[in-house]
């Protein structure tokens, strides 16, 4: 087994995604590290822990000796593991290759069932996944994904930027791991962008709903301080240094396709229409909450043709006609003004 594969297995263990056989293998080496050095894994950061465990495995391969496990009186939490080490001692006694034991303990996805694609070109690289989902991988980005997804979930790992179009499977959520951020969807389309200079990760939703939360945060709910739920035209930016999310609207909101095909198409041509009606039309078209700070504004009449204009240009035209202003507050747009004379 290579150092890279062992590192992947260790990360999988820390995320709680190991099979029982993989978990037993990792905890065996944890037990040896603690009983031989007296150090607890809680005392080491993940990178140092990986290095210490890997060095330990390499030393066993070089010496090919049967490990002698002294049970320290203070290491009571490893008694269960130590009891299982008798079997490990037998393994070394009969001297099978250590790498063979490692490979037998790994599941298929940590051995050969994962693919990593990188995009060294200057244009997007389209990757089609087993479930029918597609990923447009941006330049200088990479994606690691299994050739066969697990029955209960679909998981991929992204470095860089990509646009995801995910096939809807209500019983198999799709997870995108990007550094410290996890994006969970059932079936939708969205962007994931990484800004290395500022250590920021941004998720922008095009269709459907997306849950975004901090890796290891545990909670996947909007009420959790570690995560948010996003709808179309909304985005969340994770600031790695502060370790928190900031929500907002995408730079160029797009029209949301109507759910019913025979639904009457929205029109953006208004003739002496009250502002309340105009804003209701925009809310339906973009799925964005638009509010006013002065209720008297809602009755102000508007005559304008906003067809084929982007949302923010439409708002500029409305505010110019009504002598108002607008601001984006999180995922809501607020229009401010004195109202109008009836």
Automatic annotation (TrEMBL):
Residues 268-335 form the Protein FecR C-terminal domain. Keywords: Membrane, Transmembrane, Transmembrane helix. The keyword Secreted does not apply. InterPro entries: FecR, FecR_C, Ferrdict_sens_TM. Residues 122-210 form the FecR protein domain. Pfam families: FecR (PF04773), FecR_C (PF16344). The chain crosses the membrane at residues 76-94. GO terms for molecular function: sigma factor antagonist activity. PANTHER family: PERIPLASMIC SIGNAL SENSOR AND SIGMA FACTOR ACTIVATOR FECR-RELATED, PROTEIN FECR. This is DUF4974 domain-containing protein. It comes from Spirosoma agri.
